[in-house]
Design a protein that fits this description.
- The chain is mainly alpha-helical.
- The chain has 17 helices and two strands.
- α1 runs antiparallel to α2 and α4 runs parallel beside α7.
- It is globular.
Length: about 400
C-alpha cells in the first residue's frame, strides 16, 4: 500500500468506525448537493429554474405555461433524481452523520480521500478548491447515472425499477426521454471543470455504445451470428459489451474524480483496469441472478428476450442445427433450451466463481494505490454495497440453490 499507513479508528458512540463516519459524512454532503442541484434545476426555491428567470416563490400564482412546465419537466426531473428506492447502502444509524437517512457512498469522494486526505481535527479539508470540484463531479456522476436508468428502462421495456414504477410508466415515454436527455446536459454543465466534463463525455459515449450492442442482441441477425460463433468470440463479445455498458458505471465516477484531481497516468491505468473488472463482476452477478430466485425474485427465469446473458452464451455450442441456422433462439425457445441444459448448474457455479475472482482482483488493484489504511477501508465500505452480494451468490450456488 502506497504512502503512510494510519489507523482506521475505533468505533464511536454510534458503533461505527471513524472511517465509516467520514464515508457517511461525505455521502450526506452529496445528498445535500443533489438536493440543491435539484432545487436549482426544478425551480423549487433553492435556485432559479430554467425559464423562470428569478426562482419565484412556490406560493406565487402560476401561469398556464408555468403549470405545464411543472408537470412536464420539473416533476419528472424530481422523480428521476429524487428516488432513493433500492439505493440504500449504509443503514440509518442513530448518532452517526445523517444517521436517520439511508446513504449511498460515492467513489468520487473515495478518490478525494485517497489523494487529498481525510478531514483535519476541526473538519478542515486540505484543498477547498479540489473538494469543490469533486463535489460538483459527484453530483454530475449521480445525475448521469439517473439519466441512464431512465433511458435504459425505456429501451429494455422495464416497467419497474427497484420496486418503483419506471419514469416512463408514470410520466410517459416522450417526457421520460426528454427528462433523461435534459439531465445529461444539466449534469455536464454542473461539472464545470473542463477535464471533468471531457471525462464524463467519454463515459456517456461508452455507455451508449455498450447499450447499442446490447440492444442488438434482440435482432435475428446478431442472434444468428452469436449462435454460429465459437465460444471464445461469444465471450469476447460479452466482455466488450459489459465493459462498456456496466463497467462504465464503475469507471465514470473514478475517472471524473481523478480528472479533477490530476492523478498520475500510471495510477489512472490501474484504476481503469480495476473498474473494468468490477464492471464485469457486476454484470456476471446480474446475469446469474436470473437463475437464482433468492436474488432475482419474481423476475427470475424471465429475461429471455435477448441473447446478451453470459449464461446463454456459454451454452450455445450445443444448440441444435435447425435452431442454429434460424437465429430464432429467443423467448420461450431460449428459456426451454437454457433451463433444460445438462450443464446449466456447473456453468452457474463457474461464472459465479469468476465474478468473485474479478471482484477480488479489482479490490487488490485498488488497495495497491491506496495512500493509507483509512483510504483502503473507505474503498471497502464504498464498494461492498454490492461486493458482498457477489460472494453471497456464489455461496448460494455452492449450496445447490438456484437454476
Amino acid at each position: 500500500m502506497a504512502g503512510t499507513r494510519d489507523a482506521s479508528g475505533a468505533p464511536d458512540a454510534s458503533g461505527i468506525s471513524a472511517v465509516e463516519a467520514v464515508v457517511r459524512s461525505d455521502a450526506a454532503l452529496l445528498e445535500d448537493d443533489l438536493a440543491a442541484f435539484l432545487g436549482s434545476l426544478a425551480g423549487t426555491g433553492t435556485g432559479p429554474g430554467p425559464g423562470t428567470g428569478s426562482g419565484a416563490a412556490a406560493s406565487a400564482p402560476q401561469s398556464v405555461y408555468e403549470a405545464a412546465l411543472g408537470r412536464s419537466l420539473y416533476a419528472p426531473i424530481a422523480d428521476a433524481v429524487g428516488s432513493k428506492v433500492g439505493q440504500q447502502a449504509l443503514a440509518p444509524t442513530a448518532g452517526a452523520p445523517a444517521g436517520r437517512a439511508p446513504l449511498r457512498p460515492s467513489m468520487v469522494f473515495w478518490a478525494y480521500r485517497n489523494y487529498r486526505g481525510f478531514p483535519g481535527p476541526a473538519g478542515e479539508e486540505s484543498s477547498a478548491e479540489d473538494m469543490a470540484a469533486v463535489r460538483r463531479a459527484a453530483v454530475a456522476v449521480r445525475v448521469l447515472l439517473k439519466a441512464a436508468v431512465v433511458l435504459d428502462d425505456i429501451q429494455d421495456g422495464s416497467g419497474i425499477r427497484y420496486g418503483e414504477p419506471a419514469l416512463h410508466v408514470t410520466h410517459g415515454i416522450p417526457l421520460a426521454l426528454n427528462t433523461g436527455s435534459l439531465l445529461i446536459t444539466a449534469a455536464l454543465e454542473h461539472a464545470a471543470e473542463p477535464a471533468v466534463v471531457r471525462s464524463l463525455l467519454r463515459s456517456v459515449g461508452r455507455g451508449l455504445t455498450g447499450q447499442a450492442v446490447d440492444v442488438s442482441t434482440r435482432t435475428a441477425l446478431t442472434r444468428a451470428e452469436l449462435v454460429a460463433a465459437p465460444r471464445a468470440e461469444r465471450v469476447a463479445f460479452w466482455e466488450s459489451t459489459a465493459a462498456l455498458k456496466t463497467g462504465t458505471l464503475f469507471w465514470m465516477p473514478l475517472d471524473a474524480a481523478v480528472a479533477a484531481l490530476g492523478v498520475v497516468e500510471d495510477e489512472r491505468r490501474v484504476l481503469d483496469g480495476a473498474m473494468r473488472d468490477l464492471g464485469l463482476a457486476s454484470q456476471l452477478f446480474n446475469d446469474l441472478t436470473d437463475f437464482v430466485p433468492e436474488f432475482g425474485g419474481r423476475g427470475a427465469h424471465e429475461d429471455f428476450g435477448q441473447l446478451s446473458n453470459r449464461v446463454f452464451l456459454e451454452l450455445l455450442d450445443s444448440v441444435p442445427a435447425d435452431r442454429r441456422a434460424s437465429g430464432e433462439l429467443v423467448g420461450a425457445r431460449l428459456k426451454e433450451f437454457v433451463l433444460g441444459h445438462p450443464d446449466l448448474r456447473q456453468t452457474l457455479l463457474l461464472l459465479a466463481a469468476e465474478a468473485v475472482e474479478l471482484k477480488r482482483a479489482a479490490m487488490r488493484a485498488v488497495r495497491a494505490v491506496c495512500r493509507s489504511e483509512r483510504s483502503a477501508r473507505y474503498f471497502d465500505v464504498t464498494i461492498e454495497r454490492k461486493g458482498h452480494l457477489i460472494d453471497r451468490l456464489h455461496a448460494t450456488l455452492l449450496k445447490g440453490d438456484g437454476a
